[in-house]
Amino acid sequence: MASNSDIFDKIRIKPRGAKKKEEEERKAGECAWEGCDKSGTHKAPMGRNREGQYINFCIDHVRQYNKNFNYFSGLNDDEIAKYQKENITGHRPTRPMSTRRSGQPVNPDTLRATPGWHSQVRSRLTPDGKRIPASNGPRKLKRLEEKSLRDLGLPSTASSEHITSKYKTLVKQNHPDANGGDRSSEDRLRQIIQAYKHLKRAGLC
Predict the structure, then answer these.
(1) Rounded CA gap, 5 and 167, in Å?
(2) pLDDT of residue 191
């Protein structure tokens, strides 16, 4: 079609979306606000128990309506709390928990721990963080732990207090200051200190 045609001059192109806007305004009708004759182009919820239903307002009145809208209007605090609790499950009915074997409801009291139960559990550590050796049968030691006890001249059944006491005694005996400055027992002193450190890391003293 030629650009100088009479038909071309009669064509009018509306802005994009104008047709859709006109259709929405035609469907919406007038604003539902009393005394307002503008088009109701904006939807607002009708309220509780009327979900999915809307009222049409103009832009000014929909803002005013939404500002004062209260979904829980007319309910007291207990009713609001009940609604919020039921809303967790989508307002669907729930059933009590039951055991797999008997099918009887579980008593919540049986699920609670007995008062003071934690005080009856024996800790493996002393208040200062040291390990308490097991009392059922002889203590099973690793190879380096056995060697460290032999270096201190102690049996495998030695207690924590016995190990510490023996260590202090051997250090005093083999320290150069206790032997008039004689340094011949320095190797033995290093062996004692190393053995004690290993036993301490293992939690035996």
Answers:
(1) 115
(2) 92
CA distance 149 to 196: 8
Helix (H, G, I), strand (E, B) or coil at 90: coil
Q: Which amino acid is at 182?
A: D
Is the CATH code 3.40.50.960 the one for domain 143-201? no
User: Which tokens hold the place of 98?
Assistant: 């039951």
Domain boundaries, the chain: 17-92, 143-201
Which residues share a beta bridge with 44?
A: 55
Q: pTM value?
A: 0.35
Report the pLDDT value the prediction gives residue 129, as an integer from 0 to 100.
Answer: 63
Q: CA–CA separation, 39 vs 23, rounded Å?
A: 12
Which one is predicted more confidently, 55 or 179? 55
Are 205 and 126 in contact, with CB atoms under 8 Å apart?
Answer: no
Confidence of residue 148 (pLDDT cuts 50, 70, 90): very high
User: For 11-37, what is the mean pLDDT?
Assistant: 68
Helix (H, G, I), strand (E, B) or coil at 189: helix
For residue 23 the two structure tokens come to 């259709």
